[in-house]
Amino acid sequence: MALAIRDVREHDLDAVLALNNTAGRSILALDAERLRYFYEQADYFRVAEIDGHLAGFLIALRDGRDYSSPNYLWFSEHYPAFVYIDRIVIANAYRRHGLGRIFYCDVNSYAEVRVPLLTCEVFLEPADDVVVLFHGTYGFQEVGQQRMGERGPQVSLLAKDLPSYTYVRDTYLENENSGLPDLPWLAGRDLPLANQDAKARRLAGERRS
User: Fold this and answer.
1) Nearest CA among 68, 27, 71 for reference residue 159
2) Which domains are assigned to the chain?
């Protein structure tokens, strides 16, 4: 079994949309417009490919994005800097292969050199003890709860401290030679060309902070 975790490509989007919308009640449905937003704006959007087949994906955004998700907005109101996991989906045929943990290790590695906090939410309605246990064993703690809209589900808002960030910030991000080393595993996602200016402004702001 050949596994690759890589940045999403435009030709993946139809398969990602189909996978998302057949994932069940615990994953909110997407339309093509919302998925295009993620493709153009998400700081982290990676897929798992097994033997050439799309096996899953994870989408995450940093603070400061123009994103209307009530859970993302909750974290924006409470924390100045974070990476927010919007969704993770694993295809039925590839569950129980450890892909969830592989994705979480990967997004953790992305986040811990950029921000002090990794965040997400889990649905409490319907309750899923396996999902709650998964996040608990990975170091997430509940920092709040809210209902998504008047009739939406109750969710538990989770956060995981990233202690490595302090060292990275002091050594690289706030050093006079600011910036992470130019290594492939430290590189951020190459957003579509239309968003390169916004990415450049973000990086410039980080170097000045």
Assistant:
1) 71
2) 3-208 (3.40.630.30)
